[in-house]
Amino acid sequence: MRVLIVDSDPELLEELGGLLEANHHAVTLSPTVAEALRALDQTELDVMFTDLWMGRHSGIDLVVEAQKRWPRMVVVVLTGKGTIGSAVEAMKAGAFDYLLKPVNPPQVLRVLALIHDQLALIETRTPPRDPVDLARTLATGGGYDVLLISPPPPPEAITRVSHLPLDPEQPFHIREAVEDFAGPREKAAVVLAAIEELLARHRAEDVSKLLEEIRALLDGKGPLAVGYNPAKISATGALAVRASIVAADAHQTLESLSNPIRRLVLRRLVDGPCTFMQAMEAAQIDDTSKIAFHLRKLVESGLVSHTADEPYRLTARGEGAIGILGEIDHLDSEQGSGNRIFTFQRAPPERSAARQRSESAVRP
After folding, report:
1. CATH number for 83
2. Same domain, yes or no, for 100 and 136?
3. Per-residue pLDDT reduced to its tens digit, 156-178
4. Reduced DSSP (H G I as helix, E B as strand, rest coil) percent helix, strand, coil of the chain, to 5
5. Considering only CA atoms, which of 111, 90, 87 is closest in space to residue 20?
6. Spatial CA neighbour of 67 closest among 40, 85, 29, 89
7. Is residue 341 part of a domain?
8. What is the dihedral of CA 159, 165, 171, 172, to 10 degrees?
9. Which CATH number goes with the domain that contains 292?
10. Which pLDDT tens digit goes with each residue over 318-346?
């Protein structure tokens, strides 16, 4: 991870910095708040360790200012025993944790392990891809007109692939180029490489907004593929990119799961592939236009696959959606809307006193 350490004590800077570097983190040392702010202006960082007292400056003020600039950065406060109350205030202001001075190496590594777990969502779980090869695949295999946005020099000429040199200083030009490219085309895709160059110059929130706008321009036309060099991007920056890309798919999946007809079809597909008529029967409707609409939505969302020669089948993504349905079934609705499912046992009818006496008389 990329770590900034802010403290006026040179011995602590050397000790803590050496510990982190020995554990393969990239470390920047700042003995003053002014230098820390300059470091924060230059690039996004994953973690900041900061003293609570820096001469005339308050560490809490630095925490607040740092998180205004980089909201996803994790902050750990360094404090003495007499200022634990202030450390708690810093946590209320957004700090992740605090460590007592003198720093204890095992405690530092434990905090870093927790931070690493928090940032572990950045894993893409996919093998590296060359952006040029990916653009070529989308063009030849997917039938898309592709806009490849990457640093110069431009790649070799590829059929149905246009190249735009990436200008990280002018992100609004990227949006305009995508709008001009995708607007007149029925099938259009965008491959945006080296996103880390944008993140190095702009807030993650601004880059995420750009990606969301590009996704909106491609809606119904084709995919957006975003690539980055893992050696040059911060963990928080990669997390922001992943969240921006996954958000649209997650919304589409949840939209499909929110519809009861589509849920019925998905549950039927758990038992195996089915035909159009079997899907209609599972959905308990007799309107062919309606079931066709819902099946098309399931296919568009990637939960179901279908070709003219094959029945409807669950995809790997659809199997994941079934898992979500299972979790939904186990939600404790009593803590939400109040809607619930319950079982009951019918109480036996009350017996009269005379009948009870009669039964007692004949009981052995």
Report:
1. 3.40.50.2300
2. no
3. 788 999 999 999 888 889 999 99
4. 50, 15, 35
5. 111
6. 40
7. no
8. -60
9. 1.10.10.10
10. 888 888 777 766 655 555 555 555 555 55
